[in-house]
Structures are given as C-alpha cells and as structure tokens.
Amino acid sequence: MNIVRQLREKRGMQQKEFAMRIGVSQPTVSEWEHGKKDPSGDRLVKIAELFGISTLEVLGIPLDPSTNEKPKKYFPTDEELQFALFDGTEGITKEDFEDVKRYAKFVAARRQSIIHDDNN
Fold first, then answer.
1. 84-102 mean pLDDT
2. Separation between Cα atoms, residue 11 and residue 57, nearest integer Å
3. Could you give the CA distance from residue 115 to residue 50 in angstroms, rounded to a whole number?
4. What are the E-state strand segments in 1-120?
5. CATH 1.10.260.40 matches 2-66
6. Which of 8-17, 39-48, 54-63, 64-73 bottoms out in mean pLDDT, i.e. has the lowest?
7. What are the CA-CA distances from residue 74 to residues 17, 65, 93, 99 (Å)?
8. DSSP 3-state of 95
9. Region 62-76 average pLDDT
10. Domain spans of the chain?
11. Residue of 77, 98, 33 lying closest to 24 (CA atoms)
12. Single pTM value for the model
C-alpha cells in the first residue's frame, strides 16, 4: 500500500513513529507499504484521521475536491471485506463469510424498510 508510505513521508514521519501513532508495530507498517498486507478497517480509520483524509483516499481512491460530484461508488472485493471484518483472510470459512454477507443484506433491507416507514 504505497499510499501509506507517501502519506507518512509527506508528513516527515518514520515508520516507527507512524506505527506508534496508529497502534501497530513498525514491521506491520512495513508490510503495508510493501503490499504484503492491508490495514484492517479500524486501522484504515485511524490512518484517515491522522492524515485528515477519507478512508477511500487511504485505499488509493482519489476524491476531487474541485468538483461537486460524489465519489464514484466503490465496491470492495470479498478479500478486502474479509480483511476489514476479520483482520485478515485466515480462519474464515467460505460458509461463514457468506453468512456475514447475507446478514449485511438483511440489515440493509431492514434499514431501508425503517427509512421508508419513517417517510410515510
């Protein structure tokens, strides 16, 4: 994840300082910067907060502030979702992950139903 390195270096931070500020080890930062691992969801949020940017920008999805356009919808891959939800892809079965996706769809449908009911 070279964006992490770019952001860190732009602020003049060493890996060790950056790691301490977001609560991970220096080797973890190195793994992110060399593309061996990706930050988990909570770490993405901490990185975004530290640099004052969106989590989409941390993921390398640029937002153009000169336009009033909403960012294009981003659909994460199953692997990205697994990293965000389970802090990696190890130990999660395909069946468990499918259960999580079904539950997320249920929650989204229930939320839409509540919003629809509130508007009537």
1. 80
2. 16
3. 33
4. none
5. yes
6. 64-73
7. 31, 17, 25, 22
8. helix
9. 61
10. 2-66
11. 33
12. 0.53
